[in-house]
Amino acid sequence: MSAKTKRPKPxxxxxxxxxxxxxxxxxxxxxxxxxxxVTSSKSTAPVPxxxxxxxxxxxxxxxxxxxxxxxxxxxxxxTKTLTLYDLETRAETPPLKALPTFSTIAMSADSRYxxxxxxxxxxxxxxxQSGKTLWKTKAADTGGNEIEELAFSLDASLLxxxxxGDNAWLRIYNAAKGDLATGFDTIQGATCRHLALSNDGLFxxxxxxxxxxxxxxxxxxRQVAHCIRLPIPNGPIVGLAFxxxxxxxxxxxKKHLSTWNGETGQLVLDFEIPPAQSLAVLxxxxxxxxxxxxxxxNPKQFLHMHSAPTGRxxxxxxxxxxxxxxxxxxSPNTLLLALPSDKHTYLWRAEKLL
Length: 354
Description:
Blueprint: E1 53-58, E2 62-65, E3 71-76, E4 81-86, E5 96-97, E6 102-107, E7 113-118, E8 123-127, E9 133-136, E10 147-152, E11 158-163, E12 171-174, E13 192-197, E14 203-208, E15 213-218, E16 223-229, E17 237-242, E18 249-253, E19 256-260, E20 267-272, E21 278-282, E22 287-292, E23 301-307, E24 313-319, E25 329-330, E26 336-339, E27 344-349
Antiparallel strand pairs: 1-27, 2-3, 3-4, 4-5, 6-7, 7-8, 8-9, 10-11, 11-12, 13-14, 14-15, 15-16, 17-18, 18-19, 19-20, 21-22, 22-23, 23-24, 25-26, 26-27
């Protein structure tokens, strides 16, 4: 007989409970770095130039960069307040009270003063630290005309106010006390809009709408250095901006953009552009940005980027069609671009717009 093969005994069953599958550790939500954080409104509209976006600020009516380009002075018509917005931390200071019908704002380069102009022609200057009103004009002083733009001189000694309407010449105040500065032979009855101050603080340019010209003031001597007359067929003046030096004064008309030497009044460059509404200088004066707002003929809106040396159109960026666009505002270091509207404000990195 063949030997019976012994079957192996089954291994004894373990009395230990089977090990349970370990649950994956819950993933922690990582907050983005404050430098890359995007402040967004509740709007569902597509964001233009999203790759260049720094922030979307809701309900901002007017704004201005501080001189060091590290913060924004924000004005909100809905709350009648002013706040300072830190671009690195995204923190806002406690609000200061604004004038009820403000139409424009400005901040001095040393951050001492905040100026406000109203739709009824009032100009007021507040302390930026305390919010206390230092002085305020009466509406009758400006004929009740809306204050269109304000700008401080570089040393914060003067405040320039451009107004609209029939009684709308340029007004120049002593910033500390509010009395009219002497020595400026301004033209009464001239309709002045669109102010621009040169980087060295020596020259002020402003548009005169009726004659379609730009006056360039030499501030130390308080004299008009040049009067630049522009072709009327090219349309009304919609924006002014100095480049790196006074030798690059850029003037945007509705259909043309021209560059002039502010010291000599000579034309440097002139080229045709899509219908423009506002102008800003970016990237150390190498790029000129303009906005094109919707019209009956063309409902589309664009941000156009032009080469300053050649006038070549570098890029056109579509903007949301139903926004009421305000004027472009570039940071003093020309690296950031802000575009306020009736709903929210876009803030972009200029180099990423190209």
